[in-house]
Amino acid sequence: MNLLQVKQLKNFINGSWVEASTGDTAAVTNPATLETLVHVPLSSESDVKSATEAAKKAQKQWALVPAPQRAEVLYKVGLIMKERKEKLSQLLTMENGKVIEEARGEVQEGIDMAFYMAGEGRRLFGQTTPSELKDKFAMSVRAPVGVVGIITPWNFPIAIATWKSFPAIVAGNAVVWKPATETPIMAYELAGIFEEAGLPKGVLNVVFGSGSEVGESMIDQNDIRVISFTGSNEVGRGIAAKCGQRLKKVSLEMGGKNGVIVMDDADLDLAVEGILWSAYGTSGQRCTACSRVMVHEKVKDELEERLQREIAKLSIGNGLDETIKVGPIINRSGLEKIQNYIRIGKEEGAKLLTGGYIMENGNHKKGNYFAPTLFTDVSPEMRIAQEEIFGPVVSLIPVKSFEEAVEINNSVEFGLSSSIFTRDVNRVFAAQRDLDTGIVYVNAGTTGAEIHLPFGGTKGTGNGHRDSGVAALDVFTEWKAVYVDFSGKLQRAQIDVE
User: Fold this and answer.
1) Among the options 287, 290, 304, 388, which is catalytic?
2) What is the pTM of this model?
3) How far apart are CA 415 and CA 424, in angstroms?
4) Residue 422 belongs to a domain with what CATH number?
5) Fewest CB atoms within 10 A around its CB: which of 12, 284, 403, 405?
């Protein structure tokens, strides 16, 4: 079955598919087979300017469309995505590598977001409040920002794009989107779905290319008033600094060093299942992936044995095979980064229990595969316990108490996701309060966020904004206070109060 009808992608600007001004392209490679899937444009500043101009013009009219009518487009997008779920899922697996069941889950997340944000078209709530003066009405309303720039990563090429673009569009904004060059096919498909659903020209624009060229150019455009970015901490800090100089609104979701706490009263069967899924699902290439396990010393040995036994059962290979549980790493540089951290862990004195190598033999010759890896006797200050590896690597850290586990969990620079396995209700409520992360799970792994709740974290994970849920609307709207005085005379707040 020919899932993709083109071999050369084009930018989507002002409702038309257009070549990049540079004429330059890059190959998009299936990380499971290393075969070339398609070529993606490497655009320039002039392409970004064209997209921004189109977005600015289209947004003025789009903002005048009643929000419930804007929502109708999102409903149609959701329906089309639902009809094409399997095709989109297979394409996602081919360009990203994640196993097919995870790809289906990611596409479903986009479908859910379409229907959820369409519902906001009949809400977009503001507030009414009593005025302190007679014959005066006071309220607040949400207003669109204007043109929104979104920069999305390769590890969730359609889900994260929907988290950002759907609330922006239903709120009356226009969008300029730079997808990751490693995974442009989902952007190509989603832009086509928006076109088919009847979104007016210019409301969504897709510009392919590098962060250094396209991303930087988006920040430089005065008419792009918001940058919403998901990616590395290093790049996010740079974006924040540049946007700050331009007084440009910026939303950052960057990374995590997520921890699972396993107490001595935990259901170990459940804990093992949760750790395996959140650590080795997506080959550890999630910002919410579990990379640390703070395990009580009383159950440490048993947990080690159970994890090693289950890791040995994991099937690794091409994610299009329904029996495969762990897919490839996105590219060679990702493999080399993970391998470097294995070396660091050994040098720091951590004990390697299993894995720790690039898989290059047999069925794994043609692909970017890394063996699921487990370290033990890791101390909290080790680099492998502090820095984001973004691969299938877990560090077991022994603890003596709940309090010590929480302290270690909070000792890293990130604060995205955490979890605890325990049967003690007192510990459950203390963990919810004390774990310094934007997401807390109880008796589950660190992954599995749902679209109607806010997604994001504390400290180095972000800058206080959230994707998903109603909170996402705060990124793409401005609050406007409105006062209506029907007294027929000038009334001065705080002065003419009787």
Assistant:
1) 287
2) 0.96
3) 24
4) 3.40.309.10
5) 403
